[in-house]
Amino acid sequence: MAESVDIEQLLVSFKKFAVHGDTKATGKELNGKNWAKLCKDCKIVDGKNVSSTDVDIVFSKVKQKTSRIITYEEFQRALEELAPKRFKGQSKEEALQSIFRLVEGKEPTNAGVTKVAKTAAVDRLTDASRYTGSHKGRFDESGKGRGREGREELVENTGYVGAYKNAGTYDSKMKAEK
Fold first, then answer.
1. What digits encode the pLDDT tens for the residues 43-78?
2. Inter-residue contact 139 to 128 (CB < 8 Å)
3. Model confidence at 126: pLDDT above 80
4. What GO molecular function annotations does the UniProt record carry, in alphabetical order (predicted)?
5. In the chain, what are the domain boundaries?
6. Is the pTM of this model over 0.85?
7. Which of 7, 17, 88, 129 could form a disulfide with 38 if both were Cys (CB 3.0 to 4.6 A apart)?
8. How distant, in Å, are the alpha carbons of 32, 100, 154, 160, 164 from that of 169?
9. Rounded to 10 degrees, what is the CA torsion of 134, 135, 139, 143?
10. d(CA 50, CA 54)
């Protein structure tokens, strides 16, 4: 079909987009959401000639009637459908080569993913050395959590009332009296 374009690279891109965002995906079929992401990330959707609506229509056209996914062969047919729309001035074969070049070797981008906030307010609120009251006991001097002993009142079976100052002195007092 396309001689000058590396078909292996096209298949690699297909598999990467097929498994994006789905832990159970096998990489053999592409759902509609990932097809739309592929078209946006690979710059097939340009806003003038090809819109996201066109991408959805082509997806519906190439997939089987009852299916919600497309295979690699259907993916190639979908690119063939979009190629003349995206590259209007070129012949059908040149447009197909150009659209394959847009897709090959690409992988999903994570643009817009939330970053960890590094602001003074967050640092102040998460600094365990500034905690007061009952929360202060949950962390040691280095700011590491103490785990269960920091969260609960642990019962010591010593026979003394909790927080008794002279705990463990009974035996020494008895020896002193003798």
1. 999 888 999 999 999 999 999 999 999 999 999 999
2. yes
3. no
4. tubulin binding
5. 1-103, 114-150
6. no
7. 17
8. 75, 85, 21, 11, 11
9. -140
10. 6
